[in-house]
Design brief:
elongated; mainly alpha; 58% helix
């Protein structure tokens, strides 16, 4: 277990959160998704790297945007690091192509639709918490751990 390397893929935090919210709102018509759940998604996206660093293993970051914008370099770095033979087929992508984010607006709409007073009152709290959270993330992670590409 000494030579373990962890490959962690990340994507633009806003895109990642919007995608999660969209899917959670589809699940059972969003009956269980509120501001606290949105904040959980923020926490997962922004603290994921911090939590991984606590494992004290070599962490390799693959940024989805780099993988699509500079695919060949990322794939070649990956092959070099893991001593794999580069193949042309590795270039075939399987990817389909201070205001509230769309995910927040959808979550708030869902909260109002389900008329949960406690959750409605929590909206401003989690909105401000998100603003602080994202600003702290971008200051803290100006440079990510070893990032492929």
């Amino acid at each position: 277990m000494k030579n373990i390397k962890i490959i962690h893929t990340i994507r633009n935090p806003i895109s990642s959160i919007n995608s999660s919210v969209k899917n959670w709102l589809r699940y059972k018509n969003g009956v269980n998704f509120f501001a606290k759940d949105l904040y959980f998604q923020f926490d997962k996206v922004f603290n994921g790297i911090t939590n991984l660093l606590k494992v004290r293993k070599k962490i390799l970051i693959v940024q989805l945007e780099k993988l699509h914008d500079n695919r060949k370099k990322v794939v070649m770095d990956f092959c070099r690091i893991f001593n794999l033979k580069y193949e042309r087929c590795l270039m075939n992508s399987t990817y389909f192509n201070f205001f509230p984010m769309k995910s927040e607006l959808l979550t708030w709409k869902n909260t109002l639709k389900h008329k949960r007073i406690k959750h409605i009152l929590s909206i401003p709290y989690f909105f401000l918490k998100r603003i602080i959270f994202i600003n702290k993330f971008f200051v803290q992670y100006k440079y990510l751990p070893y990032s492929l590409g």
